[in-house]
Write a structure and sequence with these properties.
588 residues; mainly alpha; three-stranded mixed sheet; two-stranded antiparallel sheet; 9 strands; 53% helix; elongated
Length: 588
């Protein structure tokens, strides 16, 4: 299996000790709790504090979440009159317009709530007060509000930033996590904020998601939220730059000499007569293009415009001859716009000057790492096709620190057997990417994560052939056996051992240059037992034994042909080599 992969040390935070009892969820109003004692939150408490029972896995996720919320809602506090007035100024109904007065009052009320939530002793009280999280949800949902004047827009943004700050403070308390994750519409509004708010709102919501991802009871809720996963994908994906449309450059220049001469050039539509202009240089200078057709003659110009101009002079000479015959011919000059078909170009992953984007990416990677370290949620994350593709793109950004973070997430995905087949056969570039990273990554940690992923993939029998047949894969693994860190060597040797368990891969071991010799050198690194045998040397010896086994089986598979008498030796038993020759209808 994989070596330890530590990016975010969340082992101590996976479960909230003392927060959730085995039979249910402990309430802030549980006996012995010293919260809810000071104004303005000292409202009437709900006395029904019976814990809810955990439900079976066959219940739909939305139904389970609603059941959990209904159980938690019974434990909420009724807001005091002061808090109720504050929430009234924050919450916006569907029919309530965002005018200047409402936007100002809401902004101020959000500021007051932010000041209260900044104090640690108030965070649990605020979160477990009825109506607070729903009011905060309405503010985040207004990220999609449009048709606002500048002053109202600024006030709406400021109110949203203050609410996100409140949500971050509330998420610091682990007892609030399940209630935050179960509140209807709150995670979806966070997803919309991450998508549409490019500043503080995006980074703050990603931070809240990170806090929620560290708690065992909320990991599954975060991983199964499709909108939240889609928004995280947009945050971490590699940006692309599409070149603007090129200036209008003439593409085709044609002349038809019947009665009208149509010219495609770069000067717009214009018309003139030969009687008025004759050899007018202005008319000839605009006839720029690549292809020029005149009656039965075709003039091609690919690089030099001068050749086209020479063709125009020939046309004008023809016009002059017709003019001598007292015939009036008109011609029209028109254009054809040049259409840019250039492909989008990737830009530097860390080039964006928006510091909030980089902060959001850091929190997004940390959240994903917490999710893939959980056996239940890693399979859910592995099924997000767009997310995995975005991680693959980031893994190739060798110059960015996010390169190692993306590889760590991918490596942890391969720890679950259900993900291995999916990653190998649904993402065609996955194996080639791991090979490229393991060979060319300048970061030792990046190479180690790639080799650990290959080690886990090679455990799956359905993936061994695909791994071994990937171009340069065997060469990459063999090269990692020398002049590398011990962890890289062990991971590469373990992958080779797993590949050797499949006899179909024997030809790949034989075809790879110096493969057997490098494995033999590693197997003798303990100087024939004089030194302590390391794990890499043990794996190398085991691999050589397995390869020799398959070679011996191949050599003896036809030994039945050597049995000349009934009751002879069993052809399937391994035996010493025989000097007996076998010919095909040979003459003595």
């Amino acid at each position: 299996m994989m070596m330890s992969l530590d990016f975010i040390n969340d082992d101590k935070n996976d479960t909230a000790t003392g927060l959730y009892s085995p039979r249910g969820v402990s309430s802030p109003t549980a006996p012995g709790s010293t919260h809810f004692s000071s104004a303005p939150f000292s409202g009437e408490e709900v006395l029904d504090t019976q814990p809810y029972q955990r439900y079976d896995h066959d219940i739909d996720d939305d139904v389970r979440q609603s059941i959990v919320y209904e159980a938690l809602r019974k434990q909420l506090l009724k807001p005091s009159p002061q808090m109720d007035e504050l929430l009234t100024q924050i919450y916006r109904g569907v029919a309530t317009p965002i005018d200047r007065a409402f936007a100002t009052r809401r902004k101020n009320a959000c500021g007051a709530l932010k000041i209260l939530a900044a104090k640690k002793e108030n965070r649990l009280k605020i979160c477990w007060t009825s109506g607070v999280l729903l009011a905060m949800t309405s503010v985040l949902q207004d990220v999609q509000a449009d048709n606002l004047d500048e002053q109202n827009r600024v006030a709406n943004i400021e109110a949203r930033n203050r609410i996100v700050s409140v949500l971050c403070n509330l998420a610091l308390e682990k007892k609030n996590h399940l209630l935050i994750a179960s509140t209807p519409g709150l995670l979806d509004s966070m997803a919309q904020t991450i998508l549409l708010d490019e500043n503080e709102g995006r980074q703050g919501c990603c931070t809240v998601m990170f806090y929620l991802s560290k708690t065992a009871d909320t990991k599954a809720v975060i991983a199964r939220n499709k909108e939240l996963m889609a928004s995280i994908t947009k945050v971490i994906e590699v940006p692309t730059w599409i070149a603007p449309q090129q200036p209008q450059i003439p593409d085709i220049c044609r002349f038809d000499m019947d009665e009208t001469i149509d010219t495609y050039s770069a000067c717009g539509d214009m018309s003139c007569t030969s009687s008025e202009h004759g050899h007018n240089s202005d008319c000839s200078s605009v006839a720029e293009g690549r292809y020029f057709a005149c009656s039965d003659r075709v003039y091609a110009c690919t690089e030099r415009v001068d050749e086209v101009l020479d063709g125009v002079e020939d046309v004008l000479e023809g016009v002059e001859k017709v003019q001598e015959e007292e015939k009036l011919i008109t011609f029209t000059l028109s254009y054809e716009k040049f259409v840019d078909t250039s492909e989008p170009l990737e830009i530097d992953y860390d080039l964006d000057p928006n510091k909030f984007l980089h902060g959001a990416r850091l929190m997004a990677f940390a959240s994903l790492l917490c999710l893939v370290k959980n056996e239940e949620t890693v399979t859910v994350v592995g099924k997000e096709h767009a997310l995995v593709e975005a991680l693959l793109e980031v893994s190739l950004q060798f110059s960015s620190p996010s390169h190692v973070r993306a590889l760590a997430i991918l490596a942890h995905m391969t720890r679950h057997p259900q993900n291995c087949h999916l990653l190998v056969h649904k993402h065609v570039s996955f194996l080639s990417l791991l090979q490229e990273v393991a060979s060319d990554s300048p970061e030792t940690e990046g190479r180690r994560y790639a080799l650990c992923a290959l080690q886990n993939l090679s455990v799956d029998a359905s993936c061994r052939t695909a791994v071994a047949s990937t171009p340069n894969m065997m060469k990459c693994l063999v090269n990692r056996l020398k002049d590398c860190s011990e962890e890289e060597t062990v991971a590469a040797m373990a992958a080779l051992q797993h590949l050797a368990d499949d006899p179909a891969n024997l030809n790949h071991f034989i075809a790879a240059k110096n493969c057997i010799s490098f494995i033999s050198v590693l197997a003798r690194s303990d100087y024939y037992g004089e030194k302590e045998t390391g794990i890499a040397a043990f794996l190398a010896k085991n691999t050589l034994a397995t390869l020799s086994h398959w070679i011996r089986r191949i050599a003896t598979s036809g030994s039945g042909l050597l049995v000349s008498e009934p009751g002879g030796r069993d052809p399937h038993i391994l035996h010493d080599a025989s000097l007996q020759t076998l010919t095909y209808e040979g003459w003595s």
